Amino acid sequence: MTALLTDLYQLTMLQAYLEQGMDDSATFELFVRKLPPERNFLVAAGLEQALEFLQSLAFAEDDIAWLESQGGFSQRLLDHLKTFRFTGDVHAMPEGTVCFADEPIVRVTAPLPQAQFVESRLLNIVHLQTLIASKAARVVLAAPDKRLVDFGMRRAHGAEAALAAARAAYIAGVGGTATVEAARRFGIPAVGTMAHSFVQAFASEGRAFTAFARAWPNRPTLLIDTYDTEAAVAQVVALAPQWAREGITLGGVRLDSGDLAQHAKAVRALLDAGGLPSVRIVASGNLDEHRVAQLVAAGAPIDGFGVGTAMDTSSDVPALDAVYKLQSYAGVARRKRSQGKATWPGIKQVCRTLGADGRLHHDRVQLEPEPCAGRPLLEPVLRAGRLVAPLPTLDQIRAHCAAQLQCLPDALRSLAPAAPPFSPEISDALRALAHEVDAATRQ
């Protein structure tokens, strides 16, 4: 990805920093200012891609040539960009970690021009995956014992978003994806069935089912609601003995429309009566965590859900108030005091304490030097632009996320807004520093 995938003001500020000789060490923190009412928690995600960006950051010759052609950029800046690299340090919450408002997810320390320039792309990467992982986690909590599959590529906001969404959903516990490139790139199980158009292309539903079963004999899943759902199941039951003689074992049937609970109960009864008790029922069709929870609560005999648009676009909460703010420059704590957007100054850590039951008790946002009575969440991941240690595998990240969700109190695991909402404690030393910075900047 080109280094020009950024906001113009990153380059205009970079030029001004160079002219002023401002290249002392700066620390920025990426965090979410406020959780939406529809979210009791967030799941941090996207760190691996963020680190890939930082390690590969460089301006190509044609990038610099284009900037020169636009006018206004100094020769000093253009020359500087020829060797521009990220050489700083990064601390971050491990991917899959549950987090909350005002908690730094990623902390960047580097010479000011570098630390400033990477803002836009870091937010672009971490925001999207955190947004989708947080939505997907709600779907997982709504149906903890069901097979869940990402069906959302076709309505995701572009190719990169579709791949990032599949990865983020898998971290949160979704078990597979219909997006083939995501399966190839990330090692996520690929899952797919058929479209209604496949059934419509044949002279009869039975012929369509047989053709598909013969083309994919290893436990195929058939879409059964193109015309009449129950009639389609009757055809499946009638054809199953023939398929069995050909070595084909039906894996499942998919429902995509209508009253899913009612259809699932009728389909389960027909399959069981027809000697097909092991055939699974999968449901899809404009599902979200609330609809999934309703189906589970209704006792619908559905074994798995394909969730698409609502999850891959986080349709109820399409964006988080994620920001990347300067906290320290040249050894001096900095603080933004804008109304409604004030920040806590200084280089910070998040300290997490669990209760005797192993559940989350409280988080404390504190200054880095303060002793941590629990577990510090921000860990070093880059030092001088290089990885401190190999990154975890995607399955390790997924397991970490599952453990994090397990540690949440019931009120936070609920789809309903927690009352009162969870909010981290701010340490006394951090509050005192904020007062000091305010006093100094008012002079």
Describe the overall structure.
This protein has 443 residues and is of the alpha/beta class. It folds into two domains: 8-132 and 318-442, nicotinate phosphoribosyltransferase, CATH 3.20.140; 143-312, TIM Barrel. The protein has 17 helices and 19 strands. The strands form four sheets. Strands 13-12-1-5-3-17-18 form a seven-stranded antiparallel sheet. Strands 7-6-11-10-9-8 form a six-stranded parallel sheet. A hairpin with a 2-residue loop joins strand 12 and strand 13 (332-333). Helix 11 (229-245) runs parallel beside helix 12 (260-273). It is elongated, with a radius of gyration of 26 Å. The two termini are 44 Å apart.
In brief, what are we looking at here?
The protein has helices at about 10-20, 45-55, 60-70, 75-80, 110-115, 120-140, 160-170, 180-185, 195-200, 205-215, 230-245, 260-275, 290-295, 310, 395-405, 410-415, 430-440, and strands at about 25-30, 40-45, 90, 100, 105-110, 145-150, 175, 220-225, 250-255, 280-285, 305, 320-330, 330-335, 350-355, 360-365, 375, 380-385, 385, 425. The chain is of the alpha/beta class and about 450 residues long.
Keywords:
alpha/beta, TIM Barrel, elongated, seven-stranded antiparallel sheet, 443 residues, 2 domains, nicotinate phosphoribosyltransferase
